[in-house]
Amino acid sequence: MATYDLVVIGTGPGGYVCAVRASQLGMKVAVVEKNATLGGTCLNVGCMPSKALLHASEMFEEAGHSFAKMGVSVSSPKLDLPAMMNFKQQGIDGNVKGVEFLMKKNKVDVLKGTGKIISAGKVEVSADGKSQVIETKNIVIATGSDIARLKGIEIDEKRIVSSTGALSLDKVPGKLLIVGAGVIGLELGSVWKRLGAEVVVVEFLDRILPGMDGEIAKQFQRILEKQGFAFKLGAKVTGVDTSGKTLKATVEPAAGGTAETIEADVVLVCIGRVPYTDGLGLKEAGVALDPRGRVQIDPHFATSLKGVYAIGDVVAGPMLAHKAEDEGVAVAEIIAGQAGHVNYDVIPGVVYTTPEVSSVGKTEEELKQAGVAYTVGKFPFTANGRSKVNQTTDGFVKILADAKTDRVLGVHIIGIEAGEMIHEACVLMEFGGSAEDLARTCHAHPTRSEAVKEAALAVGKRAIHM
Ligand code: FAD
Ligand code: NAI
């Protein structure tokens, strides 16, 4: 029977990063993975394939619509979907191989099979009808999440798809009906819209992207509508008739009322994700779940069973790869006796559409609700020189600072490369910086990031270019 300091169950961004950090700290580590490849949701059916398709479809869209105005004359681009899917697969393979390499480099044993916690210190690994029990001082549960389903609507991953099926459609749907105007709906809706689908999004709430700053979400909705998205807000899909050639979705007002039918070739259900704990044996082992089915942890990631910890999508908090990674590092350090820590006030969120949307810290709604007095600085990309010359002026930067101390409490950006620009705000906020600090930091010209500096100047009502 092999004996380890740490066994990590799951090799998504939480699990594999935790294993690497634990190995760096001198532990003997194994990871258990039931999927054929390492890397979890993120690398196989999440972040990476979606970003590959977003990139490729954006190039397709640019070639068709933006080149001519810059004097680049090309014939109308033709879509080779199998080649685009192959491009996506190459990206997945490259990243998955990268994780395999990291496991080898850090001398982490990879145990293929389904992990089940027998008791503190014992993990059973089963594959192909065989099982073995591994002894370990510590266990980290990093089993991630699964798609949330709609009652009565069966996902066949062909016509009624989750994100997984929507990443692998074999032809562009004439009409794509998306249930849920969250991150997945808007990212994958963008992919298929650019490739030629008509996209209708049905959202239960009266706004898109719940949780994001309301003003940002409103402007983003307008931008997406200009791109051709149609939104049905305050509505829910209650059933899908699959008997005919086209799907017939029944759509009702969220509050109840007269139903209508929307026809579509493909329905994408993306109404959130749920923690994945199937087959882990948590109940029998005595690992408690919270009321929402997430593994319950204390501030040090410890579960109710001694020596068993949990991180990533399977615990509370935003279901984001970088949150899982940071928790992986923190828990490894805690197990090693160090002071591992995650600052949940500074976890950026990015929607990788065109333009991108990014955000860190508090929204205006959250500050209002908490009764915090704040000042707002805003700067539009229409007034940013680099954006003007590139003719990509959609969006703006919004900075929220404490009215008394000027400390930056939240930053929200819509714009090209917003997902890169947000990180200067993250660093600033980690150091408790003020809008004045940001405003007095020299920014290279001409860059889009100058709009961040100008928004910081605008907090003090002294933006230069507006
Ligand atoms: P996962 O990545 O889900 O990994 C869990 C692993 O555990 C899986 O490999 C699974 O097979 C394995 N496992 C489960 N149970 C067992 C068991 N009993 N035994 C052995 N192995 C087991 N986040 C971002 O930050 N940025 C993005 O751009 C982004 N894009 C996304 C796009 C899509 C379409 C989706 C669906 C998600 C996206 N996410 C994104 C979210 C991101 O994928 C997750 O937050 C992240 O993968 C969570 O990491 P994790 O390590 O907790 O779990
Ligand atoms: P989400 O939570 O972002 O959005 C789900 C949307 O569906 C919400 O707007 C919700 O109000 C709506 N909804 C719920 N029930 C509904 C119903 N019955 N009818 C109509 N609308 C309904 O979830 P999503 O988009 O499925 O993504 C899952 C997770 O994956 C997210 O938590 C996100 O963090 C992560 N992710 C992150 C990405 C990124 O960081 N760029 C990209 C993709 C996913």
TrEMBL record:
Belongs to the class-I pyridine nucleotide-disulfide oxidoreductase family. Residues 4-328 form the FAD/NAD(P)-binding domain. The lineage of its organism: Bacteria, Pseudomonadati, Pseudomonadota, Alphaproteobacteria, Hyphomicrobiales. InterPro entries: Class-I_Pyr_Nuc-Dis_Oxidored, FAD/NAD-bd_sf, FAD/NAD-binding_dom, FAD/NAD-linked_Rdtase_dimer_sf, Lipoamide_DH, Pyr_nuc-diS_OxRdtase, Pyr_nucl-diS_OxRdtase_dimer, Pyr_OxRdtase_I_AS. Residues 347-456 form the Pyridine nucleotide-disulphide oxidoreductase dimerisation domain. Its cofactor is FAD. Keywords: Disulfide bond, FAD, Flavoprotein, NAD, Oxidoreductase, Redox-active center. GO terms for molecular function: dihydrolipoyl dehydrogenase (NADH) activity. The keyword Heme does not apply. It catalyses: N(6)-[(R)-dihydrolipoyl]-L-lysyl-[protein] + NAD(+) = N(6)-[(R)-lipoyl]-L-lysyl-[protein] + NADH + H(+). Binds 1 FAD per subunit. The active site is a redox-active disulfide bond. It comes from Bradyrhizobium zhengyangense. Its EC number is 1.8.1.4. It comes from the Bacteria. This is Dihydrolipoyl dehydrogenase. It holds the Pfam family Pyr_redox_dim. It is an enzyme of class 1 (oxidoreductase). The keyword Flavoprotein applies.
